[in-house]
Amino acid sequence: MNLDADSLRIIGILKDSFFPLLIAGLKFTIPVAVVSFALGSLLAMVTALARISKYKSLNLISGFYVWIIRGTPLLVQLFIIFFGLPAAGITIGAIPAGIIGFTLNVGAYNSEVIRAAILSIPKGQWEAASSIGMTHTQSLLRIILPQAARVSVPPLSNSFISLIKDTSLAAAITLPEMFQVAQQITATTYEPLILYCEVAFIYLIFCTILNIIQQKIEKKLERYVAM
Fold first, then answer.
1. What class, spelled out in words, does domain 5-158+179-226 have in CATH?
2. CA dihedral angle for residue 178, residue 182, residue 183, residue 188, rounded to 10 degrees
3. Residue pLDDT, tens place only, 113-130
């Protein structure tokens, strides 16, 4: 089948841009998402425990943090960190700014997942742990959190997959992830439609792989619970 000049040009652009986009995804998109999710999950755990704490000051501080982050757009948060803080004399690079923004966002949203998972554990579990001489901290670490972890795996996995897609917002603060690279290539090829579709396809590949991993983890957890 003979292809016209325009078709050959488009195929050439897709071929030439695929590996630069993929490399940007593997070099920046995935690492930024992994680091942000790991730090955000630690922050989420601390925030969730503060939210259910008996100390009102911790409840107020953690609740205020969650309220602010969940009530404002992620893009605005990134802009404040990267473009706003320099006005106060605090300059942060694109990658650290992206990680800080994503970490704060993940921490707020995942804290609600973890908090709900902890609260879903029957109070009888606390009472049983207390009856055998465990302290509150021991009950939390040995009995409650392991059960809550199994409950929270599916929503936390979905949160990570969403974070992979949200990293595209970091292009707005010049972080050189996939979408930023696509914008740079578009500026020279003038083919935004095919390049953005190609980026979407690569994101789809990443998310499909993560979905498969998520399903395998959930099946292992189901077998563990059934034992």
1. mainly alpha
2. 150
3. 999 999 888 888 877 878
